[in-house]
Request: fold
Amino acid sequence: MVACARDADRLAEALAGVPGATGIPADVSSATERTALVERVVAEHGRLDAVVLNAALGYAALVEDTPQDAVEAMVATNLTGVVDLARLALPHLFTSAAERGRADILVTASSAALAQVPPLTIYSATKAGAHGFVKGLRREVTARGVRVHSVTPGPVSTEWLVRGRGAAPTSDADAEGRLSPGIRPERVAEQVARSLTSYWSRTVAVPRWMGVARLGEVPPIDRLLDMTLSRQTGRIRRVTERMVADRTR
Ligand SMILES: NC(=O)c1ccc[n+]([C@@H]2O[C@H](COP(=O)([O-])OP(=O)(O)OC[C@H]3O[C@@H](n4cnc5c(N)ncnc54)[C@H](OP(=O)(O)O)[C@@H]3O)[C@@H](O)[C@H]2O)c1
Reply:
């Protein structure tokens, strides 16, 4: 198993004690680094059986308050990075599927891909794009043995809120007290593991009841969300900034 992140020290910390795991520091928002990453994994391991596209950034803010570099980082990481890594991996996954009978691509999307809510409008748009990519790619590759999964978690207790604001923790100890509210990340990991052994391609919400987010597409609910949330933008801005400030000071 090969894992990737930009911070080499955190990557080593995360993989310490995981048998058979190696880390390759890389930035998946860079086209050059994506190509080098896939080439290196195949050169060192001889094959590619499954790709989990989990890296993403979220800058929690109203659209009007979001800086341009944050917009570009979210699109490059959450959407371009996902699509292009899948594209680069596909030839190797087809080989693996022909030899082993299966290969897998899994995208960590979000319930925000199913129902878009401020202050995550831009993030939600990138996740809706990644989720849509999964559905289209399935229709290209299923008959050739490649499963394509989308895991759509609701709020998970992780470092995303502070990482998105450029204040990522430098160690697990530094992360204490700075995590976002939500379920344990292990619950998402369990669904990732189940997907990688399931017979069919899966779309799975975590927890399962978060699948109700799809109801946001139903016209009367959609209209209701527009009317209520757009009247609350001042409050949404204040609550978001307080949550960020509490974790970054
Ligand atoms: N937390 C939630 O509430 C929630 C809800 C729904 C979906 N999700 C999704 O779950 C996935 C994991 O997010 P998380 O909540 O665990 O966030 P996180 O704590 O911020 O972790 C993100 C991970 O991605 C890596 N990463 C970020 N940008 C990268 C880049 N350009 N290249 C390589 N690695 C990069 C980070 O390491 P480096 O910074 O060292 O690169 C970090 O290991 C994401 O797809 C996120 O959108 C999260």
In short: The pocket of NAP is lined by residues 4-7, 10, 27-29, 54-58, 77, 108, 110, 153, 155-156, 158-160, 163, 168, 180, 182 (CB under 6 Å). The chain is about 50% helix and 10% strand.
